Amino acid sequence: MGERYYTLSEGCPYASNSTSVQVRNRSGGGLALLQDTQLIETLAHFSRERIPERVVHAKAAGAYGEFEATDDCSDITSASFLNKAGKETPVLLRVSTVGPETGSADTARDVHGWAMKLYTDEGNLDWVFNNTPVFFIRDPIKFPSLNRSHKRHPRTHLPDPNMFWDFHVGNPEGIHELLHLFSDRGTPRSLREMNAYSGHTYKFTKEDGSFKYVKIHIRTALGAKNMTREESIKVAGENPDFYIQDLFEAIEKGNYPVWNVYVQVMDPAEAEKYRWNIFDMTKIWSHKDFPLRQIGTLTMNRNPQNYFADIEQAAFSPSTMVPGIAASADPVLQARLFAYPDAARYRLGVNYQQLPTNAAKAPVYCPFQRDGKMRYDNNYGSDPNYVGSSLKPTKFYQEVKTSGTKRLSLLTEHEKWIGEVVTFQTHIADDDFVQPAALWDVIGRDPGHQERTIGNIAVHLKGVQSVQLRNEVYALFRKVNTKLGEDLRKATEAALVSS
Ligand code: HEM
């Protein structure tokens, strides 16, 4: 290879960075020419640099690393990455805020997203989690309204506490998540000191068709730590990219963050008797009832080489799964299985799985998915483009890999139970306030934390103009704990007077 020189995107040498081709007139002025491909291409590409940002979870940090299995979990799942202690699987991680746009401050109070791609030897597995174990809704149809109420008002283009609280008063099942959000957990000290949770119930499955229900927990080895409101506001002003910088610099210095990964495991028969609906994402499973079992550790040890290629073009979806893991009947999870690939096709294009950051490291052979915009492999050449062709005989996974155990019918009695449980509950019951009340007591064990949580809600709530709506918010928190509702009223009124 000779010496490197600049070219245009199709190889034509790039003449210079200082002169567009012009016809000079006598008075020294110049006329730009259409023949100046260099100028046209340079401007045209610049105008097209942006792709749509994610409609939620736009601002994020990302890194690569390893998941290491700490146990042989073949008693509960056939997933190969979990079937040998010490087995390592490469990982891509993207940690985000939810509502604010890509230029926003990292430490803005918000739920934080945790999207992880495990490049396993049986294909990619995406874990698309949050830093809270519950969620605001249990019916997926509410998701767009939830997010719009947290984002900008259509007229003022400002975040709007009136919309925010109006939504939550009308959808009180989110009270458990609201308490998490307005507690110190809404402002983690760093991404390295943050936990993450599947929230949803998933299934760990075995080749014989049997399965366990699981919830996945990812806990930082540093211990979860948070900022106060005052600290988070100060950091947001001084360094809006604080989390990104902290994670990047820690990894550059070799100070690799580590998390321990656990599952809570529940038998289907136990699910039928459990006090809580396991498909309702506003509820947790008590650790006393279902203790944590460690399955692995996660170490992030490599920064992206290029943020856009590695992180912005990454596409995560709960539907990206491997044998041994399956979705439960949680309706929010079921909706998500559709929403993410749909979003990726819009945001990145139909062949987004071919982008290097999304491509599986395990062998991929799907010649029945052909063509489409921006295809850039050899498109399976002349291979048959339909499944089961005798022209190029190809086996199915069960024939090659599994022990061939006969699968049990999935239409068991348990499936009938699921059918009955997942008739959806818009109805709010007293039970919906039991776990939030317990969380409020847990917050109370940390000196000053209840007062800080009330203060965090009050400074947000004071932006609500309607006295009636404010009263409805106090009433909502009173249902968790009478004193909490009353203290919130006092704190909000004091904040209104002093503002
Ligand atoms: C009905 C409920 C939900 C819907 C329809 C939904 C939809 C979406 C969409 C469309 C995106 C943007 C994807 C992209 O452009 O690549 C997204 C991102 C994300 N969502 Fe959800 N979501 C839902 C609930 C949840 C829940 C319950 C969690 C956590 C347990 C969650 C975690 C995330 C994360 C972490 C991301 C960022 C992914 C990334 O880093 O690329 N979402 N969601």
List the helices and strands and how they pair.
Layout: E1 22-24, E2 30-32, H1 37-47, E3 60-69, E4 88-97, E5 112-120, E6 123-130, H2 143-150, H3 161-170, H4 175-182, E7 196-197, E8 202-205, E9 211-220, H5 229-238, H6 242-252, E10 258-266, H7 268-273, E11 292-302, H8 307-312, E12 325-327, H9 331-347, H10 397-400, H11 413-421, H12 434-444, H13 449-461, H14 467-480, H15 482-498
The protein binds protoporphyrin IX containing FE.
The site of protoporphyrin IX containing FE (HEM) has 28 residues, from β4, β5, β6 and α9.
Our count of domains comes out at 3
Largest sheet geometry:
10 strands, antiparallel
Outline the low-pLDDT stretches: 406-410
Query: N- to C-terminal separation?
Result: 68 Å
Task: Catalogue the ligands.
Answer: protoporphyrin IX containing FE
Q: What's the order of the H and E elements?
A: EEHEEEEHHHEEEHHEHEHEHHHHHHH
Q: Give the count of helical stretches.
A: 15
**Rg of Cα set:** 26 Å
Mass-distribution shape: globular
**Total number of beta strands:** 12
CATH class of the largest domain: Mainly Beta
What is the typical, i.e. mean, pLDDT? 95
CATH architecture of the largest domain: Beta Barrel
For this structure, what is the CATH homologous superfamily of the largest domain? Answer: Catalase core domain
Structural class: alpha+beta
Active site: 57, 130
Domain Catalase core: 7-395
Keywords: Heme, Hydrogen peroxide, Iron, Metal-binding, Oxidoreductase, Peroxidase
Organism: Aspergillus avenaceus
